[in-house]
Amino acid sequence: MPRPSRAGRRAALSLLACAVAPAAGAQTPAATAVTLSELSVVGSAAPTGPLAGEARGSLSVPSVDRQRATLYGTVGSVAFVDAATLQDRYANTIRDVLKDVPGVFVQERYGQELRLSVRGSGVARGFHLRGIEVLQDGIPFNLADGSGDFYQIDPLALRSAEVYKGGNALTFGATTLGGAINFVTPTAYTALAPNILRLDGGSFGTIREQAQMSRIDGPLDALINVTLTNADGFRSHEAQATRNINANVGYRIAPDIETRFYVGAYLTDQKLPGTLTLGQSLTTPTLANPAAIAGNQSRKVETERIANRTSFLLDVGTLDIDTWAIHKNLYHPIFQAIDQDGWTYGISPHWAGTFDVGGFRDDVVLGLRAYAGQNTALQFVNIRGQRGAQTLNSLQSAANYEAYGENRFWFLPDVALMTGAKAFSSNRTFSDKGGLPGNPRPRFADVTYEGLNPKVGLLWQPLPDLQVFGDIVRSRDVPDFTDLVQQNLLSTTFVPLRAQRAWTYEAGARGRVDRLAFDVTLYRSDLRDEFINFSTNPGLNIPAATFNTPRSIHQGVEAAVTLDIARDLVGPGDTVSLTEIWTHNDFRFVRDPVFGNNRIAGIPTDVLRTVATYRHPSGFHVAPALDWVPQGAFADHANTLRVPGYALLGLEAGVDFANGVSLFVDARNITDVRYVSDVAVVANAAATAGGAGALAAFYPGSGRSVFGGVRASF
Questions:
Q1: Which class for 600: exposed (0-12), middle (13-18), buried (19 or more C-beta within 10 A)?
Q2: d(CA 682, CA 595)
Q3: How far apart are CA 223 and CA 600, in angstroms?
Q4: What is the tens place of the pLDDT at every residue in 636-661?
Q5: pLDDT tens digits for 109-137?
Q6: What's the CA gap between 479 and 445, in Å, rounded?
Q7: Would you state the torsion angle of the CA atoms of residues 597, 598, 600, 602, taken in this order, to the nearest 10 degrees?
Q8: Of 687, 35, 590, nearest in space to 363 by CA
Q9: What is the pLDDT of residues 23-57, one digit of tens each?
Q10: Chain centroid to CA 196: how far?
Q11: Which of 9, 599, 600, 690 could covalently link to 694 via disulfide, CB atoms 3.0 to 4.6 Å apart?
Q12: Among the residues of 46-169, which ranges form H helices?
């Protein structure tokens, strides 16, 4: 494991010294300390009907109510999704989990493959994940170099999802441009029922089975969830099969000590349909790219994860010690057959507590993270999906050392000053062993990234159900190996990119006033050395090239508003509500030597979603929805080609019976609109051989579909 440099160690020690300093005169919190009430706003998705009222938890995993309350103590833009609201609708991917969260752009490409971006993180990256930390149960799920994907997140195995946008994820030690998303799985204490059985099915040959069981026996509790999914897919060569197992076992060692083990196994076998031209996407969207079929392109992933959280309730605050290990095996025949196998392992102590300082409340969070990993990265000539002659024999190593702290000082009963910082040292080492006919000479590269990311902000809570906030934070994104090890048809090259840096300014308000709930944030990020991607040949599925652009700007609006239009409309206790979600994205180059002040391609400027919901106390509910993109994204950074906008109509309906049985139906793209769901961004579409019409860089969206299911809780 690479050792941290002296500068990195000095920065980490200095940060801890500064963060601990306020605690020197700490006392037991006074009885008059301010206690903020729980805040429920748009995005919180508070359950209604038979699922409401869950309030249990344990020392290592608080109740869902406590999770929500803690999240909304954050000085900055956040969102909470209670997975109870997903139980009576079709939820196949994390888009179904996050589609109602403003500021989160999540778009399906095929199967489980998505584009996930928050505030333009990885804006032009054509695959997987960059600039967002994915956590499960507060423990990192990304690999040691920061890369990650979505295949292991099972929407049916969640109890909640917490979205921390940008630097607001400092509570986990994350300070990337996009922030962090924490997917929380249930325990036997927070599960919706001791036993859950579910069967889904519908269009494109989709069938999915889920079973969950949990038990509590004195100080011991346990839960296991198994989900099996098979689907042929909307397009040719899109079949997938996934097998996900999530389990956890907790043990109360003493009244103030609890340990919890998490075990997971995730298997995915996904055929890849590739990209099409714009014309094909709008006329024959079910086609697969000929190169995808000829190379039998696919993605086969086997991941195993074991993690532990041991929690100590101290005289002041709570100490959590997290440890984890992730093994991932990837076989990925695309333009070449990529064969990788690696481990990531880490440890992270995290302490949070409240002090009384001179009669004022002071909330403190302190943490350390050390995690590392190695990945054997091999490549072969792709012969119809099988390994041919070897072309690369390399080893990728990453190590990260981080210290972070955050302090919220309530200098008025309803106003808090937040200060915080994170110090880090991250190393990336690449070793190409050579010795192959096309790659005879060994190559070695080593780069270390270091820095200090400060944060300052104010939170004002004038009413129990109203918060106003503003903050300034610095983020740094360290490149992963997909950025650093770039490939084309001829060779593999290590590119020593600079870290992406940004100052982000945000201001917003969230809360409820009578029948109106709202969550609105305005932000601006001034970036230096942003990672910009473009595909050299999208049709062959060659990973995108990455470069640093000197300056760029990301700014936008994240807004969600819900109005309770009517109550007692048909009968006592029924409700009609209307929700409008708007994400405005303005991402631009600034005097770039090649692209000037053009828009950064890949994500549309405006994404809107309107949902009207009717609920009856008997358990019946219906919710028509309209997803509208007025103007599609640019396909190239030269801004010569833009995809058309679109509007999709959907309808969700179901009934929850008092005996724990639920039935639901979910109809999507009812009018069967032909549209482009995502783009593999290129530098200049006009420069494509044969013209822009020959550019195969587009993922067609799925056509009309209907899914239904039954769920039994007992």
A1: buried
A2: 12
A3: 45
A4: 999 999 999 999 999 999 999 999 99
A5: 998 888 899 999 988 776 778 899 999 99
A6: 14
A7: 170
A8: 35
A9: 333 333 333 333 344 444 444 333 333 333 345 89
A10: 26
A11: 690
A12: 64-71, 94-98
- 646 touches 658 (CB < 8 A): no
Q: What is the CB neighbour count within 10 angstroms for residue 218?
A: 7
In the sheet where 276-277 sits, what is the strand order?
276-277, 696-700, 676-679
Report which of 175, 103, 43 is spatially closest to residue 521, judged by C-alpha positions.
103
Long-range contacts of 671-674 (CB under 8 A, 24+ apart): 671/704, 672/703, 672/704, 673/646, 673/647, 673/648, 673/701, 674/281, 674/282, 674/283, 674/285, 674/700, 674/701, 674/703
Q: How many angstroms separate the first and last alpha carbons of the chain?
A: 48
Supply φ then ψ for residue 672, to 5 degrees: 55, 50
CB 603 within 8 A of CB 643: no
Residue % of the chain over a pLDDT of 70: 92
CA–CA gap between residue 114 and residue 479 (Å, rounded): 20
CB contact set of 24 (below 8 Å; sequence gap of 6+): none
In degrees to the nearest 10, what's the CA dihedral of 285, 290, 295, 297? Answer: -10
Nearest-10 Cα torsion for 327, 329, 334, 336: 110
Residue 573 sits at φ, ψ, to 5 deg, of 90, -5
CA distances from 455 to 15, 238, 423, 467, 501 (A): 12, 44, 12, 19, 14
Tokens of 81: 């999704």
- Cite the DSSP H helix spans in 388-536: 481-484
Q: What is the pLDDT at residue 392?
A: 94
Nearest 10 degrees: CA dihedral of 384, 387, 390, 393?
A: 120
Predicted structure pTM score: 0.92
Strand partners, 547: 532
Question: Among 545, 569, 502, which residue's Cα sits nearest to residue 167?
Answer: 502
Interval 685-701: pLDDT, tens: 999 988 999 999 999 99
Dihedral of alpha carbons 130, 267, 372, 473, sign: positive
Distances (CA, A) of 538 to 364, 483, 533, 689: 47, 16, 12, 13
- Give the bridge partners for 276, in sequence order: 698
Of 173, 134, 278, 375, which is closest to residue 644 (Cα–Cα)? Answer: 278
* 703, amino acid identity: G
User: What is the enclosing helix (H) or strand (E) of 9?
Assistant: helix 6-20
